[in-house]
Amino acid sequence: MGYLQYGSASEYEFDDRTLAHLKVVVVSRLRRQESFLLSWATEPSAGSGRTSIWIAPTIPLQFRFSGSRPPALNKTWIDVMSRLSHSSRGLVVVSEEEAEAVKSGEVTISGGID
Protein backbone atom coordinates (compact mmCIF):
# COMPACT_ATOMS: atom_id res chain seq x y z
CA MET A 1 0.00 0.00 0.00
CA GLY A 2 1.12 3.53 -0.75
CA TYR A 3 0.13 6.90 0.63
CA LEU A 4 -0.99 10.24 -0.72
CA GLN A 5 0.16 12.83 1.78
CA TYR A 6 -1.66 16.12 1.32
CA GLY A 7 -0.91 19.25 3.30
CA SER A 8 1.06 19.00 6.48
CA ALA A 9 -0.73 16.15 8.24
CA SER A 10 -3.31 14.43 6.02
CA GLU A 11 -2.37 11.01 4.70
CA TYR A 12 -4.56 8.70 2.61
CA GLU A 13 -3.87 5.05 1.78
CA PHE A 14 -4.15 3.61 -1.75
CA ASP A 15 -2.71 0.46 -3.29
CA ASP A 16 0.47 1.24 -5.23
CA ARG A 17 -1.06 0.54 -8.66
CA THR A 18 -4.00 2.89 -8.09
CA LEU A 19 -1.69 5.52 -6.60
CA ALA A 20 0.62 5.36 -9.63
CA HIS A 21 -2.29 6.09 -11.99
CA LEU A 22 -3.65 8.77 -9.71
CA LYS A 23 -0.21 10.42 -9.63
CA VAL A 24 -0.09 10.74 -13.43
CA VAL A 25 -3.50 12.45 -13.55
CA VAL A 26 -2.92 14.74 -10.55
CA VAL A 27 0.56 15.85 -11.66
CA SER A 28 -0.71 16.58 -15.15
CA ARG A 29 -3.36 18.95 -13.73
CA LEU A 30 -1.02 20.59 -11.21
CA ARG A 31 1.62 21.13 -13.89
CA ARG A 32 -0.92 23.47 -15.52
CA GLN A 33 -1.55 25.19 -12.15
CA GLU A 34 -5.13 23.86 -12.07
CA SER A 35 -7.10 23.13 -8.91
CA PHE A 36 -9.76 20.40 -8.74
CA LEU A 37 -11.72 18.11 -6.45
CA LEU A 38 -10.42 14.58 -5.80
CA SER A 39 -12.86 12.00 -4.42
CA TRP A 40 -12.81 8.29 -3.64
CA ALA A 41 -14.89 5.67 -1.88
CA THR A 42 -13.73 4.52 1.53
CA GLU A 43 -13.44 0.75 1.95
CA PRO A 44 -16.04 -0.91 4.20
CA SER A 45 -13.20 -2.11 6.46
CA ALA A 46 -12.36 1.58 7.09
CA GLY A 47 -15.95 2.60 7.80
CA SER A 48 -17.33 3.09 4.26
CA GLY A 49 -18.40 6.45 2.85
CA ARG A 50 -16.56 8.87 0.55
CA THR A 51 -13.69 11.26 0.98
CA SER A 52 -13.16 14.44 -1.08
CA ILE A 53 -10.24 16.87 -0.95
CA TRP A 54 -9.54 20.06 -2.87
CA ILE A 55 -6.25 19.71 -4.76
CA ALA A 56 -4.45 23.00 -5.37
CA PRO A 57 -0.92 23.75 -6.62
CA THR A 58 -0.06 25.68 -3.46
CA ILE A 59 -0.64 22.78 -1.05
CA PRO A 60 2.23 20.31 -0.49
CA LEU A 61 1.61 16.89 -1.99
CA GLN A 62 3.62 13.68 -1.72
CA PHE A 63 3.11 10.23 -3.27
CA ARG A 64 4.76 7.49 -1.20
CA PHE A 65 4.88 3.97 -2.62
CA SER A 66 5.59 0.83 -0.63
CA GLY A 67 6.82 -1.22 -3.58
CA SER A 68 10.31 -0.83 -4.98
CA ARG A 69 9.22 -1.16 -8.62
CA PRO A 70 6.82 1.18 -10.41
CA PRO A 71 3.72 -0.66 -11.66
CA ALA A 72 2.91 -0.84 -15.37
CA LEU A 73 0.51 1.93 -16.35
CA ASN A 74 -2.82 1.39 -18.11
CA LYS A 75 -3.49 4.22 -20.59
CA THR A 76 -7.25 3.63 -20.51
CA TRP A 77 -7.36 3.99 -16.73
CA ILE A 78 -5.38 7.25 -16.93
CA ASP A 79 -7.56 8.58 -19.76
CA VAL A 80 -10.83 7.87 -17.94
CA MET A 81 -9.65 9.46 -14.67
CA SER A 82 -8.22 12.41 -16.59
CA ARG A 83 -11.58 12.99 -18.29
CA LEU A 84 -13.28 12.76 -14.91
CA SER A 85 -10.88 15.35 -13.48
CA HIS A 86 -12.20 17.88 -16.00
CA SER A 87 -15.85 17.18 -15.22
CA SER A 88 -18.11 19.02 -12.79
CA ARG A 89 -17.79 16.07 -10.40
CA GLY A 90 -14.00 16.31 -10.30
CA LEU A 91 -11.44 13.51 -10.31
CA VAL A 92 -13.06 10.38 -8.95
CA VAL A 93 -10.80 7.41 -8.29
CA VAL A 94 -12.30 4.51 -10.24
CA SER A 95 -11.01 0.96 -10.46
CA GLU A 96 -9.12 -0.30 -13.47
CA GLU A 97 -12.08 -2.54 -14.28
CA GLU A 98 -14.50 0.41 -14.14
CA ALA A 99 -12.24 2.40 -16.47
CA GLU A 100 -12.13 -0.47 -18.97
CA ALA A 101 -15.94 -0.78 -18.81
CA VAL A 102 -16.32 2.96 -19.46
CA LYS A 103 -13.99 2.72 -22.46
CA SER A 104 -15.86 -0.24 -23.94
CA GLY A 105 -19.18 1.57 -23.48
CA GLU A 106 -20.54 -1.06 -21.09
CA VAL A 107 -20.90 1.53 -18.36
CA THR A 108 -21.24 5.28 -18.00
CA ILE A 109 -20.34 7.20 -14.91
CA SER A 110 -23.38 9.35 -14.17
CA GLY A 111 -22.49 12.94 -13.53
CA GLY A 112 -18.90 12.01 -14.14
CA ILE A 113 -17.69 12.31 -17.70
CA ASP A 114 -19.28 15.26 -19.47
UniProtKB/TrEMBL annotation:
Pfam families: DUF7882. Residues 1-96 form the DUF7882 domain. This is DUF7882 domain-containing protein. It comes from Paramicrobacterium agarici.
